Amino acid sequence: MLQFANEIKKRVYFFPKDINDLNTYFHQNADATLIVDFDEYFENRNQKDFFNDINRIPFKKILLIGNGSHNYDLNNFKINQNLVELEDKYSEIPYDFTGFPNLEILRYEHIKNCSNFSSLTKLKELSLWVYPNKNIDEFLELYNLEDMRFVQSKITTINGINQFKKLTSVFLIANKDLIFDLNVQANENVRELYIDSCKKIDINLIPKLFPNIEKLTLMKNGEIKELKPLLENLNRLEDLNLMGTKILENDNRYWKDYNNIKKISFLDQKNLFLKANEF
């Protein structure tokens, strides 16, 4: 019997004993996700050929989690012509991404010696953890990107982001050396910007780089002197989330003057005239 992490969402675990049933299930459910949880295979840790038959399963989405991947032969994970979604922050596989010509979603903790991101021409979502380079030049040929996310990475600039004409969402989390500068050209297509714990970013430059955002989140980004530079210059902004970011101004009644703003979320502060429940 198949083992599901979530049967409604069609997330099912891989076990060799279930190969035939998995083959049938994925033929009938092309949108299902195969979960490889290395923690579940501890008793098989000396069985190098544990994944020999995994490619008999016609999966298009895969999630690799858990510890202990080094115990196995993982060559069958390194090439998949049909794979559409790959999420892997655990296996330490140095992928050559030329082996995934149809990939649309990649969520990956960067591993030394992985290569050829530029070959992922169908990619729509790129989410990278601990990316070691200081710029995003390696991705500038991924013209179909709609969603870009960097987490705990070494990037210092997003110069070139204007080249992504389909990009609508940008998430920047715990990139401690990242700055916005005046030399970066604007991306007018981005509608959602999420910044968390990137304290070197000058938020007053957000309207220049992303003038048409509709949803802006500034989480744990230190202190903001005042919101006026943002509210004055982001004419399409509807949803502003400031949870965990300290606002230094006192009289915030003018926040209500911007009719385009439908929601402002923030933590109550003694210095603020109006409190969160008054918006």
TrEMBL record:
Gene3D superfamilies: Ribonuclease Inhibitor. It comes from the Bacteria. This is Leucine-rich repeat domain-containing protein.
